[in-house]
Specification:
Helix content: over 70%
Radius of gyration: 23 Å
CATH topology of the largest domain: Tetracycline Repressor, domain 2
Structural class: mainly alpha
Strand content: under 5%
CATH superfamily of the largest domain: Tetracycline Repressor, domain 2
Largest sheet: none
């Protein structure tokens, strides 16, 4: 019996070794950010229900085992995915030192340009749909909205707006640039870019 136990232990060790080696090979060259980026694309195309580890691995062209180098399970992937969305779509601008260094009107213009140039609203519909059914997703959406409004509100405040004038302009800017691409995608990017300066001019008039 002890011989069988030793054999079983050796077999278990060997299988574990094979799994670790497969994981190392499969994860090579695929970063955590790449997994998360692919997950966002999957949510956008298939919804949260269609997001699977196997599907992500197939899209990345690697073995499923590589997933576990970065995440314990699908639930951890989803938690990190929400934080990644907030950072990559919102904080990439609100914490951008070059944008923050601009005077407020130029800051608003550059913010609008960056949103358009990088298509930062491409995941809005998918994430907000997810938020209708999931508490953590809803929390992330509220966090992103708060960060965006605070950032834009700061620029309009520096321009001298207060109270309702301040809130109205901050809300209009944030709402428009959250839904610009989903609503006006049929209008060329060049034309939408041309209208940015005029839109900011309207919003910043005293």
């Amino acid at each position: 019996m002890s011989r069988l136990i030793r054999l079983a232990n050796k077999l278990e060790f060997f299988l574990g070794y094979l799994v670790r080696m497969a994981s190392k090979r499969s994860h090579r060259g695929v970063t955590r950010a790449e997994w998360l980026d692919m997950a966002l694309k999957s949510v956008c195309k298939k919804g949260i229900a269609g997001l699977t580890v196997q599907g992500l691995a197939r899209s990345l062209g690697i073995a499923k085992a590589g997933f576990y180098w970065h995440f314990r399970d699908r639930d951890e992937l989803l938690r990190q995915l929400l934080d990644y969305w907030v950072h990559e779509i919102t904080e990439v601008i609100t914490k951008n030192v070059e944008v923050l260094a601009l005077e407020p009107k130029s800051r608003l213009v550059r913010t609008a340009e960056l949103i358009l140039e990088n298509d930062l609203t491409r995941y809005e519909i998918a994430i907000r749909q997810w938020a209708l059914e999931d508490r953590e997703a809803a929390r992330a959406v509220r966090q992103a909205d708060r960060i965006r409004l605070d950032f834009v509100r700061g620029a309009f405040s520096e321009l001298g707006f207060e109270n309702d004038d301040l809130e109205t302009r901050a809300m209009l800017f944030t709402c428009y640039h959250t839904w610009d691409s989903p609503m006006f995608g049929e209008i060329s990017r060049k034309r939408r870019c041309e209208l940015i300066a005029k839109r900011i001019e309207l919003l910043t008039k005293l």
